[in-house]
């Protein structure tokens, strides 16, 4: 086939698929301590804000010594997105971390170039019905060990959320019962997301990656009806 | 069609087998044809608590694998004609309980029984998930302490997502809370979670509160379900549980420490 013929063929197609190598910054994690990550990331970005703004970034977990699930993915991804970068993929993670990454719509990149990793089998009965982009309303208690994710919207729970349960939402989280588990709002980096609950007994609250564990939530508001939101990267817990 | 009740908890040693035996006996004594199945393959206990350990020939796993028929394996209780026990195998492991096999046995039993009580093993592993998969009702046995409450909560989460009813998007399993080993004196001193605390955390209907009692150990040593001991407060509490399960409105008893009388106070009773 002549060059001319192939050119005509390709020009009539709406696209062509090509491989090309793009240089992407890789965030190689050595220590899963979120506080230290937050501090260092803030400093780095202050040094070169333009470089990091809207920059794609890959998270590399291969150097983590504690190769367990201590990297709270939703927190990390929320943090990175909240700082204006775009996490696109993960490499070197264990199956558990990869599963968490998939939930947050990150690509699982393979370390050995070219060959994609075998994808983990999708779980038979995913507890969260939120595959479409909308808000999620839950009227039954969210039990220990359950995870719910409102992709692209708010998560509203009209019952209690037990300790050991995890709520994720791209938007706000509303709990019209006691919140005893973890609540992560704005997991895709929406820093204007908020958490509202009737009774704050949470193990962890987070907005766009900024978080507080129950120990660091002021006892003053413990057990109260509160809202949690961000002011200048600071998490504020305020009675409502 | 039988109603299948799973007795579950997550944590071990909270009183699942005692409860299974008592509830099965209680339902049968009310004239319901009842079977109680031991799902704790490899660590069977129910036969001891039911007092039929010396009559075990075939077991649940034999029926699943087709080595015995259901009628060969079911042991009729000597005290109550409407009660049958299906013991667990002590020599196999829990993987012998296949979903298909368990489903077939329960279907067959469903034709002749009114109630099937499933005594779940502790943990959230295979045996426990098999016991709950086919359930219509779940009785979550909980002790008034935080770790037991959390494990029960975890169990409730699994019930809500990994049962046949959940997978087929049918009406969810009816869940009941049964508080066991309750010591009102310790609750009053603030050393133990109270009924209200547990109910608030789990947000469940309270089926009953069984007071801690030495009669329970005595009953399981003798192989006589505690519900047969009408003088025991624990036995009476289980009788109330049966009434409530069957829809009768019975007030809760044994929630407060007994007031000491004059003699009690004089002699430190």
What's the structural blueprint in terms of helices and strands?
The complex is a heterodimer of chains A (240) and B (269).
Chain A (H helix, E strand, L loop, with lengths): L2 H10 L13 E3 L5 H14 L1 H4 L3 E5 L12 H10 L3 E6 L3 H9 L3 E3 L26 E3 L8 E4 L4 E3 L8 E4 L3 E7 L2 E4 L9 E6 L3 E4 L2 E4 L12 E6 L2 E6 L1
Parallel strand pairs in A: 1-2, 2-3, 3-4, 5-7, 6-8, 7-9, 8-10, 9-11, 10-12
Antiparallel strand pairs in A: 11-14, 12-13, 14-15
Chain B lengths: L2 E6 L7 H14 L4 E5 L7 H4 L10 H6 L4 H4 L1 E2 L6 E4 L12 H12 L4 E5 L6 H8 L3 E6 L3 H16 L2 H4 L6 E9 L1 H5 L6 H8 L2 E7 L2 H9 L10 H13 L16 H6 L2
Parallel strand pairs in B: 1-5, 1-6, 2-4, 2-5, 6-7, 7-8
Antiparallel strand pairs in B: 3-4
Task: Describe the main β-sheet of chain A briefly.
Answer: 6 strands, mixed
Q: Strand percentage of chain B, roughly?
A: 15-25%
Dominant shape of chain B: globular
Gyration radius of chain B (Cα, Å) is 18 Å
Rg of chain A (CA only): 20 Å
Distance separating the two termini of chain B: 50 Å
Sheet having the most strands of chain B:
8 strands, mixed
What share of residues are in beta strands of chain A?
25-35%
- CATH topology name of the largest domain in chain A, in short, is Pectate Lyase C-like
The tally of helices of chain B reads 13
How would you explain this protein's 3D organization?
The complex is a heterodimer of chains A (240) and B (269). By secondary structure, chain A is an alpha/beta fold. Chain A has two domains: 23-109, Alpha-Beta Plaits, CATH 3.30.70; 130-239, Pectate Lyase C-like (3 Solenoid). Chain A has five helices and 15 strands. In chain A, the strands form three sheets. In chain A, strands 5-7-9-11-14-15 form a six-stranded mixed β-sheet, with no helix packed on it. Chain A has a five-stranded mixed β-sheet with strand order 6-8-10-12-13, covered by helices on one side. In chain A, strands 1-2-3-4 form a four-stranded parallel β-sheet. Chain A starts with a helix and ends with a strand. Chain B has 269 residues and is α/β, with parallel strands linked by helices. Chain B is 41% helix and 16% strand. Chain B has an eight-stranded mixed β-sheet, sandwiched between helices. The mean pLDDT of chain B is 92. Chains A and B meet through loops of A and helix 7 and helix 10 of B.
């Amino acid at each position: 086939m002549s060059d001319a013929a192939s050119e005509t063929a390709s020009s009539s197609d709406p696209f062509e698929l090509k491989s090309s190598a793009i240089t992407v910054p890789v965030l190689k994690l050595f220590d899963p301590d979120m506080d230290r990550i937050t501090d260092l990331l803030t400093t780095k970005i202050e040094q070169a804000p333009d470089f990091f703004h809207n920059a794609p970034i890959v998270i590399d977990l291969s150097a983590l010594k504690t190769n367990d699930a201590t990297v709270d993915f939703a927190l990390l991804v929320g943090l990175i997105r909240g700082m204006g970068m775009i996490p696109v993929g993960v490499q070197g993670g264990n199956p558990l971390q990869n599963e968490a990454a998939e939930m947050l719509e990150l690509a699982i990149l393979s370390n050995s170039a070219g060959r994609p990793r075998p994808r983990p089998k999708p779980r038979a009965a995913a507890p969260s019905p939120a595959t479409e982009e909308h808000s999620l309303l839950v009227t039954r208690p969210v039990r220990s060990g359950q995870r719910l994710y409102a992709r692209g919207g708010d998560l509203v729970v009209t019952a209690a959320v037990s300790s050991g349960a995890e709520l994720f939402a791209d938007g706000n989280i509303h709990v019209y019962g006691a919140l005893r588990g973890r609540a992560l709002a704005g997991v895709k980096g929406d820093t204007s997301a908020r958490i509202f609950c009737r009774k704050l007994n949470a193990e962890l609250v987070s907005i766009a990656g900024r978080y507080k564990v129950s120990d660091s939530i002021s006892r003053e508001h413990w057990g109260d009806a509160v809202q949690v939101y961000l002011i200048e990267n600071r998490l504020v817990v305020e009675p409502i | 069609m039988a109603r299948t009740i799973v007795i579950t908890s997550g944590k071990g040693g909270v009183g699942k087998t005692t409860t299974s035996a008592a509830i099965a006996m209680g339902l049968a004594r009310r004239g319901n044809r009842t079977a109680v199945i031991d799902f704790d393959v490899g660590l069977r206990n129910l036969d001891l608590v039911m007092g039929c350990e010396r009559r075990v020939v075939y077991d649940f796993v034999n029926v699943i694998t087709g080595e015995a028929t259901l009628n060969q394996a079911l042991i009729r209780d000597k005290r109550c004609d409407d009660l049958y026990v299906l013991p667990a195998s002590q020599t196999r492991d829990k993987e012998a309980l296949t979903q298909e096999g368990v489903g077939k046995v329960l279907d067959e039993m469903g034709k002749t029984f009114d109630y099937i009580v499933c005594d779940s093993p502790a943990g959230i592993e295979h045996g426990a998930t098999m016991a709950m998969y086919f359930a219509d009702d779940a009785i979550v046995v909980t002790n008034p302490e935080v770790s037991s409450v959390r494990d029960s909560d975890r169990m409730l989460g699994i019930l809500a997502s990994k049962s046949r009813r959940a997978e087929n998007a049918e009406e969810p399993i009816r869940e009941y809370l049964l508080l066991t080993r309750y010591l009102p004196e310790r609750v009053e001193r603030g050393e133990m979670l109270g009924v209200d605390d547990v109910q608030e955390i789990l947000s469940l209907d309270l089926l009953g509160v069984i007071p801690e009692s030495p009669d329970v150990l005595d009953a399981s040593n003798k192989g006589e379900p505690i519900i047969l001991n009408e003088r025991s407060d624990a036995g009476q509490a289980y009788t109330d549980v049966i009434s409530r399960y069957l829809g009768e409105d019975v007030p809760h008893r044994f929630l407060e420490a007994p007031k000491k009388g004059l003699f009690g106070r004089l002699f430190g009773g």
